[in-house]
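Memo to structure team: turn this sequence into C-alpha cells by end of day. - J.P.
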Amino acid sequence: MKDEVRAERGGFLERQRHFCLLTSAFCLALAVGGADAGAQSFPSKPVRMIIPFAPGGGSDVLARFIGPRLSDRLGQPVVIDNRPAASGVVGADLVAKATPDGHTLLGTTVTFVINGTLQKGLPYDVFRDFAPITLVIASPFGLLLHPSVPAKTVKEFVTYARASPGKLLYGSSGPGSSPHLAAELFNSMTGIQMTHVPYKGIALAITAQLGNEVQVAFSNMFSTMGHWKAGRLRLIAHGGVKRTEGIPEIPTIAESGVPGFEAHNWYGYVAPAKTPRPVVERLYKEIAAVANLPEVRRTLVAQGNDVITNTPQEFAKVVKADGDRWGGIGRKLGITLD
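Reply from structure team:
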C-alpha cells in the first residue's frame, strides 16, 4: 500500500513539474510574441521627439533636419516638442515618465549626462531611467567671439582676456551645461577669468552674443555656421582632438596654445527605460539610415560634425564614460548644481 502511495505521489510530482515547465514555456512564448507584436505594430501613432532646449539650438536644428526623413521611414509624423527649462531637466523628466512604447523620444546632448552626475535631486536617474538608441553626431565646441573682441587667434584672445579679468562675458545654455563646463575648463587651463551668463538654451545665448550682451560662447559649429560665415561672429578655433573634415581650415584649441584642451558635444536619442528592445533596435536602424543618407551625411560633415550612428549598446557606454569625465571635471572645478 505504501509503495502504491509513493508511486502515486511520485507520479503526481512528475506531472506537476511537467505542467510547470509547459506553463513557463507558454508564458515565455507569450512574452516574446507580445514583444514581437509590439515591434511589428510600432509605430501606431505620431512619434513625439522632445527637445529639452529652446528652438534654434543644436539639438533642435538636428531634430528638424532628421525628423521629416525619419517620418517618411516610419510612416508616422515625427512631432518636435521643445521644452526648454532647467538645462534640459524638465524635458528629460517628461520622457523618463512617458509610456515606454517608442512613441516618445528625447533629443539628448552631453549636458544630459552632466546633469546626471552633477545635479542634486534629479527626478530621474540618467543611467537607469532611459534606453539609449543612438548617438547621431559628435560636434566639437567652437570658440566664438563677438567681432568687438580684438582677437583672431586663441593666443590673442587669451592675452586680451588676461588684461581684463572678469570683463568678458560668456553665454551658455544654463548652469552645468556642456557650454558652461567647456568655458570654465578653458578659464582654468588658460588662467583667464570670464564671467558666466546663463540662458535657457544655447540659441538664446548666441542671440545675446549677436547683440553683444555677451562676447564669448562655446557652441556647436553647425547651428552657428550662418553667423560666423557671414562675419556676425568670429570662430577662432574648436575643441576637437583634430581638425574636422568639413572645415579643415579651423584649428583646434589644443594646437592653438592650450595643449590637452578637449570639449565636444554630441547629439543622440534615448527612449524611456523598458521600451521593448525590438522597438529600440527599429528606431536605431531608422535614425542611422536617415543620418547616413548621402545628402544628409554630406551636410552634417560640411558643418563640422562627425556622423557616428553607434548602436544602443555603444551609446550606453558613451553615456557612462562622458558622465564620468565631465562629472570629474565639474567636481574638480568646484561646479555643483542644486
